[in-house]
Amino acid sequence: MRRPMRLVSTPTDLRRPASAPDLRAPLPCAPRSADGRAGPGIACPGRLAGLAVALILSGCKAAGAAVELSKEAGGDDGALQVPALPADGPRLVALRAGTPVLARPRAGARKLGELYPGAAVVRSSEPYGREGCSGGWYAIRPRGFVCAGDGATLRTEVLSVLPAPPDMSRPLPYRYGRARTQGAPAYVGVPSREELRHAEPDLERHLERVQRSEAQLGASANDVPLDARGVASGPPVLLPGGDGIGEDGRRTEAGYFLFPTSDTIAPLPPLAALGIELGAKDSARVDLRSALKTAALRKGSGVAITRTFTTGETDGRRLGATPDGRLIPVDRLQAALGSAWHGVDVEKLGLPVAFIHRHDVTTWSLGRGKASPDEEELERRTGVPLTGKFRTVGGVRFEEARDGFWLRAQDLVVIVRRTRFPDFAKGSQRWIDVSLANQTLTAYEGQKPIYATLISSGRDQLRDPGSSASTARGTFRVRSKHVTRNIDPREVADSFDVADAPWVIDFAPGHAMTGMYWSAGIGEAQGFHDIALTPIDARRLFLWTEPQVPEGWHTVHSGDDEGTLVHVRP
């Protein structure tokens, strides 16, 4: 029988002292997440990606008279209701990461959510005013207003040169890669041959090494079939010719990044020709030619790739576009497939359920006063539904599986059937129960368990979260949800940067549940405040929790008493 994959332990916290300079921050800005935490130094949400859209934007002025708004009761930041927009209406296209969707058509209104480059959302045919937005505020589906200007345009022809939107139907919404070596470049435009050699002095030697290497890649999260609820419906299926898999059924790292692609894309103008001004530290101007390479990724740093393409400028070298529009040479990345492991659907089975906690665990047969190990071996983290019955033989406790065999309790992490519930667990109320001691998560509707899985929480586990890496305990509500978002490098002991983590669910300041593509380890406390899940589990919870992310949006924020409850206990 196959041996289970061993969990990789996370090193201790390697955070540098606050007084030490951040020598690895190559960007002329300091990106931050919604709660103010520093994100990895490879994304700068407020800027264009060096793509050709700036040429179109320079002549883009919204036409048409503004729609007259009626006076309504309610606070200044209350969401303004407008007539429903038809699904086949005209579109507005987002150009910048973090393009805000506001509750009212004016700057400073409450933020309902965000759009990312390449999102094309249905809009009103005319703007609802121009206060603080010369291009006009357009209503979008299903609610909210977006300013047509630097962050969004009415010109849908720019979609061909923007990052591809996420694939919401799969465990990983994008393809992911991790930097092979220290200093992998990220560009804000298609570099010329001269610029490539200046930014990557080791280019020829690097390409020779890449050509000599061939990777054997196993099953990924995206190979697992899912049902309509997002629950795994079978084992991974490797289909020849699908998603980077060759005709012989094997994958190569290069092939992994060939979806979606455009091999005939027209050469894009260099950044300097677009007239884009990039901010730098202390608001100083920077030389556009030297700013073409805006980041040097640390070895192991992860990024999402939305599409890849080649141009004559790069001598056929393939570049990958990140969700925020930066361009990274694919040959500088190693494929990150995401774990194919997932939890257990208990909607019909109910609890208890166990997960194998050790290696080399076998099933047992019990006789009169005797326990005998069977030949069958179970991999670590295998989910096993239990009957709830147990026996003690020779001082050892055994739990009965529903399939008739027995397992030693010492080899298991068990999610038991509750006899007592929090006061809010009533009716169809959706809530998430997190046990830090057991590193488990159970989704409930009222008192009915729906889904059970393993997690990886803050590594200090039960210490004070204010002064340690422990996850905060208490009952919270989902504050916001993000299809992808950069995460605090301390979640990986600051050993590399993580961009575009999938299925992020914020539930407290500085705390979130997030999908994990950079590691297969789960079931042990090893992060910093966040609760990490495998991609399949993270997407399942993302789809199940409230508020729902509207079609085309990248982020949604909760209103008062709207978000799903998250109950974190010792």
What does this 3D model show about the protein?
The strands form nine sheets. Strands 2-3-33-29-30-31-32 form a seven-stranded mixed β-sheet, with helices on one face. By secondary structure, the protein is mostly beta strands. The protein is 7% helix and 29% strand. The protein is built from six helices and 34 strands. The N terminus is likely disordered.
Topology, pairings included?
Blueprint: H1 53-57, E1 91-94, E2 99-102, E3 111-115, E4 120-122, E5 137-139, E6 145-147, E7 152-153, E8 175-179, E9 184-187, H2 193-199, H3 203-212, H4 253-256, E10 261-262, H5 271-274, E11 293-297, E12 302-305, E13 307-310, E14 318-321, E15 327-329, E16 333-336, E17 344-345, E18 353-356, E19 361-367, E20 370-378, E21 383-393, E22 396-401, E23 406-408, E24 412-415, E25 430-435, E26 440-445, E27 448-454, E28 474-477, E29 480-487, E30 498-508, E31 511-515, E32 531-533, H6 535-544, E33 555-557, E34 565-569
Parallel strand pairs: 10-13, 25-34, 31-32
Antiparallel strand pairs: 1-4, 1-7, 2-3, 3-33, 5-6, 8-12, 8-16, 9-11, 13-14, 14-15, 17-27, 18-21, 18-24, 19-20, 21-22, 22-23, 25-26, 26-27, 28-34, 29-30, 29-33, 30-31
